[in-house]
Amino acid sequence: QVHIVESGGGLVAPGGSLRLSCTASGFTLDYYAIGWFRQAPGKEREGVSCASISDGITSYADSVKGRFTFSRDNAKNTVYLQMNSLKPEDTAVYYCAVGTCSGYGGYWGQGTQVTVSS
Q1: Taking residues 9-36, what's their average pLDDT?
Q2: What's the rounded Cα separation, in Å, for the pair 112 and 110?
Q3: Is the pLDDT of residue 55 over 90?
Q4: 68-73 and 78-83 strand pairing
Q5: Residue 5 burial (C-beta neighbours within 10 Å; 0-12, 13-18, 19+)
Q6: What is the pLDDT of residue 89?
Q7: Burial tier of 45 (Cβ tally within 10 Å: 0-12, 13-18, 19+)
Q8: For the purposes of burial, counting CB atoms within 10 Å of the CB of 16, is it exposed (0-12), middle (13-18) or buried (19 or more)?
Q9: What's the per-residue H, E or C state across the chain?
């Protein structure tokens, strides 16, 4: 049975950092592309990062480039999104999507809330 759980969200002041985790059961994450997405209230879902399997390259949205970093821990079957220099506009529910960077298909977790506010 496939199960994906995101964690690590919370309330942080502007300029702060959070590390989101995405853990899977039922399959091995390092065989799949991983997309991180976010959706803010009243806005469409947007892609934050994409870790490709085919070329091993991770790409980032311009809005987070240089501040967010994707990583994998294959031994723990977990992927991470390190988020630094957080801004209020980063406030959203963040989702880990396994097997897709387009936002279509794949396996999704329930999301974790990130709130950046003073």
Answers
A1: 94
A2: 7
A3: no
A4: antiparallel
A5: middle
A6: 97
A7: middle
A8: middle
A9: CCEEEEECCEEECCCCCEEEEEEEECCCHHHCCEEEEEECCCCCCEEEEEECCCCCCEEECCCCCCCEEEEEEHHHCEEEEEECCCCHHHCEEEEEEECCCCCCCCEECCCEEEEECC
What are the tokens at 97? 């999507």
Beta bridge partners of 89: none
At 89, list the tokens.
């506009």
Look at residue 111 and tell me whether its pLDDT is greater than 90: yes
Residues in CB range of 86: below 8 A, 6 or more apart: 12, 14, 15, 16, 17, 18, 67, 114, 116
Tokens 């880990």 belong to: 96
Q: Would the pLDDT of 54 be above 90?
A: no
Closest to 87 measured CA to CA, from 50, 49, 114: 114
Q: How confident is the model at residue 33 (pLDDT cuts 50, 70, 90)?
A: very high
Q: What are phi and psi of 76, to 5 degrees?
A: -100, 0
